[in-house]
Write a structure and sequence with these properties.
two-stranded parallel sheet; two-stranded parallel ribbon; 126 residues; mainly alpha; 7 helices
């Protein structure tokens, strides 16, 4: 049985990059039901990780999806903090967009786990 995620990812990354047309298509599908579930978030994460390059619009879409998913209930759990840690440290470099994501999450969450607080402090110190 074919996996839609693998097929889609391979098709989107055929040329190694994610362009504006692809970003528009991804946005339409991922946000079609008004929410981003864990499976969709993992799909976006793999796209970001495997793309040789991507347009800023895709990065904006990715970080918006992460925020919406993590903040859906207003609470950042230990599990969500571990996922954020994996995402942030995946490439060994914490960039300004990732720091801004953590700032936004911290500002908008009504409750933060100690794991998130630790991640936040580590990232802001670097």
């Amino acid at each position: 049985m074919a996996s839609w995620k693998n097929l889609s990812r391979r098709a989107l990354l055929l040329d190694g990059r994610i362009d504006l047309k692809e970003t528009k298509l991804i946005r339409e599908e991922i946000f079609a039901d008004g929410r981003v579930d864990r499976s969709e978030l993992e799909f976006l994460f793999k796209l970001r990780k495997e793309a040789e390059s991507c347009v800023k619009a895709f990065l904006d879409l990715f970080f918006t999806a992460v925020k919406e998913h993590i903040l859906e209930d207003g609470v950042v759990t230990a599990t969500e903090a571990r996922w954020l840690r994996k995402m942030v440290f995946e490439d060994g470099d914490i960039d300004d967009d990732e720091k801004q994501l953590l700032r936004d999450i911290k500002a908008k969450a009504r409750d933060l786990s100690p794991e998130f607080d630790k991640l936040y402090d580590e990232c802001m110190a670097s």
